[in-house]
Amino acid sequence: MSADEFDIIDRFFTRQPVTRDDVRLGIGDDAAVVQVPGDSELVLCMDTLVDGVHFPPHTPARAIGHKSLAVNLSDLAAMGAVPAWATLSLSMPRYDADWLSAFAGGFFALAERHGMQLVGGDTTRGPLSVTVQAHGHVAPGQYLRRSGAQAGDHVYVTGTLGDAGLALQLPGIAALQARLDYPQPRVAAGQALRGLATAAIDISDGLLADLAHLLESDGLGATVQVDALPRSAAFLAALQQAGTQRADWYHALPLAAGDDYELCFTVAQPQRAEVEQRLQQLDVPVTAIGRIEQQPGIRCVLADGTPCQPAATGYRHFADEPHG
Ligand code: ADP
Ligand code: MG
Fold it and tell me: Any residues with Cβ below 6 Å from ligand 1, and which?
């Protein structure tokens, strides 16, 4: 950025709640050096949040700090990885101490909850954009993948769906807004699913879009029981308030709105009881929502078996532009 770049790093990012023993060199040198735990594999992911694209303008800085790390932790969770280190590339239009302080507060509060240390990054002037790379580790071959599901497996999701999507439609409802601004990635659940789930993905673009990614990798399909989708009490209360005109949200938002940051995973019949028990011990709600089938495509059905196919299937960048 300018001379202030170093002041910013020093003032807002160098002091942090987590100091890991395995960080040989953190912020301040040309690169970070970490000691990867012996006999484990490194798991890497990166996600960018752009102002106006991934969060509405005027989203609180604390929420942006939280969410920039949360979306990455959610990817590590879907891999069954143990989070360890992060790097942060921050582009912002101007120096704003209050904004930076709130941003760092949100980032580090979540980092602390998961024992993560920020070990480096980059700071530049430009349109508001936040890129975080998260690094975790897992025992060799033990990571979860999108592929691996088999016909007959049960499809599960953690938590509830549609809350963040409804917050965008009906702003100002605290419980829903919290799901949008402060998603809590299912890190412990992801680790508990290692060796049990046949496939896993996190739900960022909407259940239908992300389940489709999971199915695509094996050329499979699924039936989804739309009435079985987990909806929060806040979601149901807000829909009731909104009235019958908005009844379509009851199906559409849990299926397609996105920003849920829950896990969607598949389990073979013999492992079901153990999966449900392990997640219950972790206090993670889990719901069976359908079955994997040979026939490609996702078939949404109501409790009585009638098909229910929503119009939109999830957020896609560049979807409105011609390919070529
Ligand atoms: P260089 O010019 O060698 O790339 P920088 O001046 O960009 O170094 O960064 C100096 C140090 O501060 C590096 O260790 C870098 O990783 C760290 N750093 C820069 N920006 C951030 C940030 N936003 N958060 C955490 N660490 C950062
Ligand atoms: Mg640099």
Answer: 5, 9, 13, 27-30, 88, 90, 118, 120-123
Ion ligand 2 residue ranges (Cβ < 5 Å): 122
Q: Ligand 1 mean position to 244 CA, how many Å?
A: 52
pLDDT band at 246 (very low <50, low <70, confident <90, very high): confident
Paired strand residues for 256: none
Q: Report the predicted TM-score, pTM, of the whole model to 2 decimal places.
A: 0.94
Phi, psi of 91 (to 5 degrees): -115, 130
The region that residue 121 occupies, defined by phi over 0 for left and psi between -120 and 50 for alpha, beta otherwise, is: left
Asked if the model's pLDDT at residue 324 lies above 50, the reply is no
Expressed in percent and rounded to 5, the helix, strand and coil fractions of the chain are 35, 25, 40
Ligand nearest to the CA of 90: 1
Atom of ligand 1 nearest to the CA of 26: 14
